[in-house]
Design goal:
296 residues, alpha/beta, four-stranded mixed sheet, two-stranded antiparallel ribbon, globular
């Protein structure tokens, strides 16, 4: 995965609160079986702290620390994105949002941009206060994506993903898939409290995987708003394999087998490894969000 060296990055789409002290009560994952289940659900992607029962204390992010100024100084161009992880995520966010803004316009709609919040330890959101243990998530209450960059190491070391820059891009694109669903009114379908292989919760997650694939298909042809050239210039077959591998690594069946030694489809919330790969590739191969109807 390669970015155009001279393309400008827009750091205004990222709020960096790493190192900030979050006021209010502690939000921790409880001990015992309940704590393990909460931890695993959080690491499946996309589950907000309100759904995990982790909410407490402050409901807003703390003021940005000096790390935001540092991000603005160090993440200026695609060259920086090719060299540094946090700058790469900034570039991915820019690329994803540029694509969806154009796609919504093409379809006669309006896309509202959603910031990504970099945090470490824990963070206050409109969905409550969350620790890093919940993994990356989208909060519909403030329409922001929350990400502790340390999760990318866990994706490889705890879940067996091959890793790589595009595996990281897949994670971010999946969360922005939830934002697209929120704008379209479909995200709420996952809030009925029902789990299982055929539940709305699973269908919402698989659709977000499909939307991630749709963005990937168009990533190298969507002009950036600054230069008019695509921000992402190269996406190889190996990159797509890394994305598919990351999707499989966080399948419900693989995580359940790894952490509880058995697979229980009646408790699935995100879909199997095979389903997650299938729907990501459906989006990538078609390049059409209309082909992401997981509810059909």
């Amino acid at each position: 995965m390669q970015f155009h060296d001279d393309a400008d990055l827009d750091t205004s789409e990222v709020q960096d609160v790493r190192g900030s002290r979050i006021p209010g009560g502690r939000a921790t994952v409880g001990g015992g079986l309940a704590g393990l289940i909460a931890l695993l659900l959080g690491l499946f992607f996309g589950v907000g702290p309100d759904q995990l029962g982790l909410s407490s204390g402050s409901d807003q992010p703390a003021p940005a620390s000096s790390s935001l100024a540092q991000l603005q100084q160090t993440c200026r161009t695609g060259r920086d994105a090719n060299a540094q992880e946090d700058c790469r995520v900034v570039a991915v966010v820019n690329s994803i949002q540029t694509y969806w803004a154009k796609e919504f316009t093409r379809r006669g709609g309006t896309y509202t941009r959603s910031p990504t919040v970099f945090f470490s330890g824990r963070v206050g959101t409109a969905c409550g206060t969350a620790s890093s243990a919940v993994g990356p998530f989208y909060c519909p209450g403030d329409r922001k994506v929350y990400l502790d960059l340390g999760f990318f190491d866990e994706l490889r070391t705890k879940f067996g993903s091959s890793g790589g820059p595009f595996a990281q891009a897949y994670v971010v694109a999946h969360e922005y898939g939830h934002h697209v669903q929120d704008l379209m009114g479909t995200l709420a379908r996952s809030q009925d409290g029902v789990t299982g292989a055929n539940s709305n919760a699973v269908k919402v997650e698989l659709q977000a995987d499909c939307y991630a694939g749709v963005w990937a298909r168009h990533a190298t042809t969507t002009p950036s708003t600054s230069s008019g050239k695509p921000l992402l210039t190269s996406l190889t077959d190996a990159d797509i394999r890394d994305g598919l591998d990351a999707a499989a690594a966080v399948g419900d069946d693989r995580i359940q087998q790894r952490y509880q030694g058995r697979v229980t489809p009646e408790t699935w919330t995100h879909g199997s490894a095979q389903q997650r790969q299938q729907w990501f590739y459906q989006g990538f191969s078609s390049g059409d969000m209309a082909q992401c109807n997981t509810f059909g």
